[in-house]
Amino acid sequence: MSKYKKLALPLILVLGIVLIAVFGKALSAKSAVKDNRTEVVFWHEMGGPSEQALVKVVDGFNKSQNKYKVVPKYQGSYDEAIQKILQTHNTSTSPAVFQAFDISTAQMLHSGYTTPVQNFIDEDKYDVSKISAVARAFYANDGKQQAMPFNTSQPVLYFNASLLEKYGITPPPVSPSYSDITRVAKELYEKSGHKVKGMTVQVYGWFLEQALANANRQLANNNDGHTGNPTKVNVNNPDTVEFLNWIKENIKAGDFIDYGSGANAGANQTAGFLSDKVGIFIQSSASMGQLSKSNKNKLGITYFPHPDGKKANGVSIGGAALWISNDKPKDVQRGAFEFIKYTLKPEVQAQWQKSTGYLALNKDSQKTDILKELYAKNPESKVPGEQLAHAKANFSNSGILMEGMQLTRQLEEVAMETVYNGGDIKTALNTADKNINDNLTQLNKANGFK
Amino acid sequence: MQSLDERTVLKRVFSYVLMAILAVIILAPFFIGIWTSFLPTMEIAKGNMFSTNVSLDNYVAAFTRTPILRYLGNTVVIAAVTMIAQLIFCSMSAYAFVFLKFRFRKTFFTLFLVTMMLPFEAEIIPNFATIKQMGLLDHFGALIIPFLTSAFGTFMLRQSFMQTPAELKEASDIEGLNHFQFYWKIVLPYNKISMITLGAYSFLGAWNQYLWPMLTTFSNNSRVIQNGLKQLKSEETFNDWGMIQASAAIIVIPTIIVLFIGQHYFKSGMNEGAVK
């Protein structure tokens, strides 16, 4: 026993050193293997099954030509990746092309670390008209395309079509108003003998922003930041009040169920929907894959609901875009753009939609066999793409180009939560307004914006 | 007499019931986690916890479809090197603070403690800048070098070394042992329990790191296991919860092994002292 103990420490030491030698060598070997292709490092935040789909896209690009080699590297969540991109700029580790999420657009733009893709679009006379206009407008500023949308989703409304059939309820129209949804939710709750809750809307700032976009209302001044840096935010407006009143009406009627906020709320409401505990919910179109794959019920999908007596303006997008860093040599940046162009090809986008649930951005994707087969199998999966194609881009539905969106969303969620718990709408929105504006003023000051 | 016995029995029954309830509360999430790792994702998504559709598919998927083995390897190397380095450096500095007489000894020790008061999160920005300047980003060095020693380890071993009887030092001086011999042959074996505790502590600390490796690693080649677990989850789309849960179960196993080994040594150490 004591002999064994004496041996233990040196043994561990030797083992550790050997392991380091092996792995260290693997590390350096990786950079030593080099053909004459230009290496284009690509940072992304697609984990899990979407990462596997993304790697396929990259492999496809690498096989399609022999000048460039894209190396995909996963970086963590969207929020974490932003910091890593900003902090490593101008070092050898920094990426040539990277994926940054929707609400970081203003931050990326102001960092000055990126080359607008518009430069390459002009150089190549690349035709962008095939790419969804609403998605493009989100990442454009001053008529210049800053980044190219990649993984894109929109919120849609899902309903349990089998349950509606069972209780003889007329399904909502494809572009429903608030009262259409209230009717279905109430009927479902009553006719099921209070066993099935009618609806839920997750406490999520994105949905509140989308409700405003759909009502053609701008949240921030300077046209939601598209014609200048925003200096004032106005959450307390008639359209937010109408949206929250809609939810409140359903809470009072008892047909609403609150799953709270955060990622767990999303998972819980999906579980509730799949196990017939709630009939209607709003979620990203990217959830469709999961909902249609593991659902014994028939799935119904409609557009995001709009206020009564108003035409739907169309919702803006969520997801992320591809940016090109400006700290890499010209030929690497060129390679990055070639890769971006590849990702937007009709077949690539179609396959991407099929395997992830994100929307195909190229209009020609709808004509590919891949999507035609998908729609033939699940006709309802057409709806999100139609919603995207329907919307005409204007300032209200092209996202909010403002820094500090992460905190803004948190404050919006606080207001929503207050209302869900019986608080007064006006007071909650006034508090949110005050806190968001205080934060915005401070941010603008810190950044030196006027 | 009779009534007294009854009371003690009741007391014992009561405390066992209480402990059983507490054990259930504490262990339930752990067992639910293990249980769900055998269920297909669809059952988990529906909240159908009592499904009998049990299989090892999730584990097979975790090993074949993800680089989890590579991450496990990376983490074992980093945690082992960190642990060994901390044991060596902390024990040496603790030895100096206890057995060597030099000026400002107390002041230096206070300085040591000051670094302990500062949480690691507060040092992230300067540490990141340093690592970046050294060109160690995305390298094992970035994950090891900042943790080669720890003020807590020195503090803990110093307290333990101070318990070493002065007679041992005197006896070794008479025997003519030099400092290194005394350190290696007497102080370390005498304080074996503290050393093992520190070893387990630093290994688990390195194993469970999340924030720092997240910031300093950029590729699968240097990624550690906790970040790898995060990678299995996608941002907005479909998630394979069963496989994620299976991976979580896999990466807990080594920490449990370390704890059991530590506990075994801890027990034997205590018994040795008691028998003598």
TrEMBL record, chain A:
SUPFAM superfamilies documented for this protein: Periplasmic binding protein-like II
Gene3D superfamilies: Periplasmic binding protein-like II (3.40.190.10)
Keywords, alphabetical: Signal, Transport
Location, primary (coarse class): other
Compartments it resides in: Cell envelope
Pfam families the record matches: SBP_bac_8
UniProt KW Transport keyword: yes
CDD domains on file: PBP2_UgpB
InterPro entries to which the protein is assigned, alphabetical: Bact_solute-bd_prot1, SBP
PANTHER family per the UniProt record, alphabetical: ARABINOSE-BINDING PROTEIN-RELATED, SN-GLYCEROL-3-PHOSPHATE-BINDING PERIPLASMIC PROTEIN UGPB
Protein family according to the UniProt entry: Belongs to the bacterial solute-binding protein 1 family.
Protein name as it appears in the record: ABC transporter substrate-binding protein
Organism: Companilactobacillus huachuanensis
TrEMBL record, chain B:
Organism (species): Companilactobacillus huachuanensis
Keywords: Cell membrane, Membrane, Transmembrane, Transmembrane helix, Transport
PANTHER family the UniProt entry points to: ABC TRANSPORTER PERMEASE PROTEIN MG189-RELATED-RELATED (PTHR43744), SN-GLYCEROL-3-PHOSPHATE TRANSPORT SYSTEM PERMEASE PROTEIN UGPE (PTHR43744:SF8)
Protein name: Carbohydrate ABC transporter permease
Domain ABC transmembrane type-1 intervals: 72-262
UniProt cross-references to CDD domains, sorted A to Z: TM_PBP2
UniProt key word tRNA-binding: no
Pfam families found in the cross-reference section: BPD_transp_1
Similarity comment text for this entry: Belongs to the binding-protein-dependent transport system permease family.
Coiled-coil spans in chain: none
Predominant localisation class: membrane
